[in-house]
Amino acid sequence: MTTEYILRSLYRPGMDLSGMQPLQFKQTPQRVLLVLPTWVGDVVMATPFIRGLFERFPEAEITLLMNRHLYPLLEGSPWVERCEFWAPRKKTAEAKQQQRELLAKLRAQRFDLAVMLPNSLRSAWLCFRAGARRRVGFNRDGRGLLLTDRVPVPNRRKGGYEPLPLCDYFAVLANTLGMPHPGDGLTLYLTDDADAAVEQRLATEGVRPEQPLVVLCPGANFGASKCWFPERFAAVADQLVRRHDAAVVISPGPGEEPLAEAIVAAMSERSFLLMAPCLTLGELKSLIADADLLLGNDTGPRHFGRAFDTHRVTVFGPTEQRWTDTSHGNETIVKVEVPCGPCHKKVCPLEEQVCMTRVTVDSVTEACERELAAAL
């Protein structure tokens, strides 16, 4: 049976999630390196921590280290005055030179403190080689010897990890740094250039300003298992056009073009495919901020909708929703409970992916109509 519900955060302000006393600094750090996550959604869910870190060290020069293609996520914010970008993970001579140049830049800044949000050995190794005086991160994935301050993992259990909302997980590091719980209020900023580009794009495509704007993001970089079926997205979209005169705008990410084209081909009603080129991440923020409804899978753009309080319907399949739980409202989750899930496999190994096949067109359509009615 399909279940639908709104997520609520598990955290309580002021709770100590780590059991570790806050670090003591002889001198307040003046040069801080913050290593950001590598997934779109995780960066958005890190924004409460980022905001809290700037409040914790208001006089410090805080440098963000991130993947270059994720910079538009934070563009427009007051946090991007100092940024460095990961070099490509390739063995070419050019990539190796870029890696050396990045390391030299980081060493030259003589960081007093490096804070790692990712759990990767790679991030700890780079901060160690960069000579950061204090290196703070979770003590996992074999990187403990590279950290000066090893933070116990709060949700470790035998054989894996207990699901914990990512904002609460990052709050453990916040507690270690003497910060209050940053909360789970996701924050993104818009830019005038991206706003103007999206407005022009929609006008050119023929979207009428009076139409309810429904944005459909059907892909997921995680893997095919997260993606609901194109023909079912198409059936829901057709219903929204017929019943509500909705402008259904389909915005795929790079590599998701075939999926978006399959939805358009399966639809009977008109839709608007924003492809060739696809929107940038900055433009996608502007589009979702302006939308009346966002429909998609458990993927990065969903968190854009949270940040802008856009009404959302999210189809969940193989992933555990508790990892991304927040107190943001205006969201209906449509999912089914199955014996084999949540499995977090990128490709379903079974003959039938029941966590997705049992999510019906009717249940998603009903959820969309409720959220759309609340938005208008």
TrEMBL record:
This is lipopolysaccharide heptosyltransferase II. Its EC number is 2.4.99.24. Belongs to the glycosyltransferase 9 family. It is an enzyme of class 2 (transferase). Gene3D superfamilies: Glycogen Phosphorylase B. One of its GO terms (biological process) is lipopolysaccharide core region biosynthetic process. NCBIfam families: heptsyl_trn_II. One of its GO terms (molecular function) is ADP-heptose-lipopolysaccharide heptosyltransferase activity. It comes from Pseudohalioglobus lutimaris. It catalyses: an L-alpha-D-Hep-(1->5)-[alpha-Kdo-(2->4)]-alpha-Kdo-(2->6)-lipid A + ADP-L-glycero-beta-D-manno-heptose = an L-alpha-D-Hep-(1->3)-L-alpha-D-Hep-(1->5)-[alpha-Kdo-(2->4)]-alpha-Kdo-(2->6)-lipid A + ADP + H(+). Keywords: Glycosyltransferase, Transferase. One of its GO terms (cellular component) is cytosol. The keyword Transmembrane does not apply.
